[in-house]
Design brief:
Keywords: Apoptosis, Cell adhesion, Cell junction, Cell membrane, Cytoplasm, Membrane, Transmembrane, Transmembrane helix. Its main location: other. This protein is α+β, with helices and mostly antiparallel strands. The protein has a domain at about 10-35 and about 70-140 and about 145-170. The protein contains six helices and five strands, in the order ααββββααβαα. The chain has a five-stranded antiparallel sheet.
Amino acid sequence: MVKYGLDYTRCRWILPLLLGIGVIFGIIALAGRGWLESQTLPYVHQASLWESCTRPEQGGPWTCESLMGYAWGRAAAATYLVGFILLVICFALAIIAFAIDTLRFNFIRGIGGLLFVAAVFSIMGLVIYPVKFSSEIEMTGINMFSWAYGFGWTTAIMEICLGFFFCCLPNYEDQILGNVKPTYFYSSP
């Protein structure tokens, strides 16, 4: 953004836009039923962050069991949900920070720090879930952690990367605001 001469007024909404995409991915992870799925036919197991569903191998109706009955299920859901709420707060703060004409760079660094905290909570939930799920719930057939679980990891990785961007952006305050004279590497013949 700084090195290639992109104007700050044109690019100021890139980071809040990326945070918005992270929020959308977090919603998909929270609502998705594809945290764990059967990999091969017959599809007999499907789980989300909130419940685990199985059915007989011959087909038939799914029977679901809530994971909130397990302490680890509540812990995984709570930590991932806290990370998601912090991400939404960072998104709202980024909208406010970039909407103000005079950008407060220390405020932006605080958003970056809060994103790192959100990433820690999200990763805790994403680690608790597969470890305890695979050790405490009986699984039949070949299972895989699937697309909604992947969206959860994508959200956590975006929180880490955007945290670095928000923390490093104040280092280039003068370049962003146009307070530095450009350096030309042209020499006349």
